[in-house]
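hey team, just a heads up i'm posting the complex here instead of the shared drive bc the drive is being weird again. everything in one block, sequence lines first with there labels, then the predicted structure for the whole assembly after. its two chains so it's a bit long, scroll down
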Amino acid sequence: EPEVTQTPSHQVTQMGQEVILRCVPISNHLYFYWYRQILGQKVEFLVSFYNNEISEKSEIFDDQFSVERPDGSNFTLKIRSTKLEDSAMYFCASGQGSPDTQYFGPGTRLTVL
Amino acid sequence: AQTVTQSQPEMSVQEAETVTLSCTYDTSENNYYLFWYKQPPSRQMILVIRQEAYKQQNATENRFSVNFQKAAKSFSLKISDSQLGDTAMYFCAFMKHEIGADGLTFGKGTHLIIQP
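-- predicted structure starts here --
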């Protein structure tokens, strides 16, 4: 069964550094998403992406964040200058249509020191 | 804006029992989707079940079923014949029925523990 994959599974970085989190959505899906889950808290929507454009973003998704689909398979989330409070689990999700069920990847645990 | 409330932070039942997790939501939308996702200790988010608001019939998936009460804005999950592998965090989530504006809104979750 096709699934969403994410790399790395765990990323440790120093405050102020840039990180890129990578996702490979399910191959025939057209809609892509990033969510964040701070430890012990609920999952929060960051951004949705379709046809090489952001279609919706939350107030969390400020100028330090950006997303890109650099080729036909990868979908990336870049955090430009990481802060301690960016430490969280980051989930990528994809969907075949919109609105439609979203399928989640296993997550990347980001730790900012 | 939508809100999703899960009022049970933690529940514990014996294996093989039936358990119901509650979820209420607030929205001014008339058409939307509701989901239950499961998050085991591995922290992967796994879809359990989905309900379209325009459907009166409650969704079922094997041992999992929902009680969807649109007027009351309630969406509970029933797990029958619970198994040890059902131990996980369960999140209720809301999605607007609007193309391109379908970011999920999650509740805070219920930690379900199945005891042997």
